[in-house]
Amino acid sequence: MFKKILIANRGEIALRIIRTCKEMGVKTVAVYSTADKSSLHVRFADEAVCIGPAPSSQSYLNMHQIIAAAEITNADAIHPGYGFLAENSQFASICREHKMKFIGAAPEMIDKMGDKASARKTMQEAGVPIIPGSKDIIPTSKEGLKFAKEIGFPVMVKATAGGGGKGMRLVWEEENFIDLWDAAQQESSAAFGNGDLYIEKFIENPRHIEIQIAGDKNGNACHLSERDCSIQRRHQKLVEETPSPFMTDELREKMGKAAVKAAESIKYEGVGTVEFLVDKHRNFFFMEMNTRIQVEHPITEEVINFDLVKEQIKLAAGISITGKNYLPKLHAIECRINAEDPENNFRPSPGKITTWHTPGGQGVRVDTHVYANYTIPPTYDSMIAKLITVAQTREEAIKKMSRALDEFIIEGIKTTIPFHQKLMKHEKFISGDYTTNFLEEYTI
């Protein structure tokens, strides 16, 4: 097992990793920008190193500074969390060159699955159902338009790099194609330094359901059931739950087998997520694979009593899995609490938190790095907490979430709590009858 792990990230995921490391008896090193010097992950790590000013490009994306911090603290492994460098093959390679274990996928695997066009091709060869679309990157908008006409509108123009909904545009009609292609390319280039695009047929009114998987150095893989991530705004997830209210035992078995097949076909090592779109007839299609821990991993942990971060660290240390698939025994829901104003088009709301009171009670979990008098910087992602509830049934989990949201008091900034309070009382959400178009169809 590793003796000391540097966490190349910030916020709640950095604190989440520190907690598991402490329970495992592993020392931790936090890195932080000048904007994060008062963050809790800095306070609770065994050591902390400032790696630069607030902009991510000069701190959390500064590979040389992070490696230097690991060297001066004698860390023997680096955990990237999610976002930032978590799926950066160059960084994974640099860690390998400096004989530091990158707690994530190997650089070759990141390249293979991190590029969505390459991942589609790999999955198709493995026999995993994929959404109809281009086999490779499409070099120009003119060629893209020609292909879109061949498969028929509507189509989705998608960046091969990155995630979080960036570099994606839905094109309903031919006359809008070029403008939306250019917009997707510019956004992808700015966000990921890579403007490569490909095209998929747009699946109307789908569910977004992902399967959590784990694989070891021997090529064995297992799945830890599904998460339904269909409540989204502009491809950004807002609420996740497991098990999916749309799932059947037959569909879970098919999707689980497909996800394990996907992992084993590429000899995937570590924890990851295979994401699918599921149409109204319960046909499912591979969308992408995330070669890292997911934001929404806590709901899986809660329904199967399993520490995914610990499993990730153990797999990186070369410990094999049992090969057992896990099925949910409870129901869990996660609401992402963002520093955003839902009444003002979800505009970011950074600033000082004057009052902070988190909910509690049986079956309530809050993952956060925030506290009273903490100042939310304007520089980073707006998520400030994850509120998770778990209960015997979905109905009970929703009621518990509604109660917990009422107890969650944050003053000084705007948050998405009022949005979630309304959502938990919406009859369509309560019925489980929703798709990724929920927020376009209903007013919250």
Task: Report on this structure.
The chain is of the alpha+beta class. It contains 15 helices and 22 strands. Strand 12 and strand 13 form a beta hairpin. Helix 7 packs across helix 8.
Short characterization:
With 444 residues, this protein is an alpha+beta fold. It folds into three domains: 4-103, Rossmann fold; 132-201, Dna Ligase, domain 1, CATH 3.30.1490; 207-441, ATP-grasp fold, B domain (D-amino Acid Aminotransferase, Chain A, domain 1, 2-Layer Sandwich), CATH 3.30.470.20. The protein is built from 15 helices and 22 strands.
Q: CATH architecture of the largest domain, please?
A: 2-Layer Sandwich
State the total count of DSSP E strands. 22
> Are there runs of 5+ residues with pLDDT below 50, and where?
none
Strand portion: 25-35%
- Major sheet characteristics: 8 strands, antiparallel
| C-alpha geometry | globular
What is the typical, i.e. mean, pLDDT? 95
CATH superfamily of the largest domain: ATP-grasp fold, B domain
CATH fold field value of the largest domain: D-amino Acid Aminotransferase, Chain A, domain 1
Query: Within the largest sheet, what's the order of strands?
Result: 13-12-9-10-11-14-21-19
Portion of residues in helices?
25-40%
- Helix segment count? 15
What is the domain tally? 3
Indicate the radius of gyration in whole angstroms: 21 Å
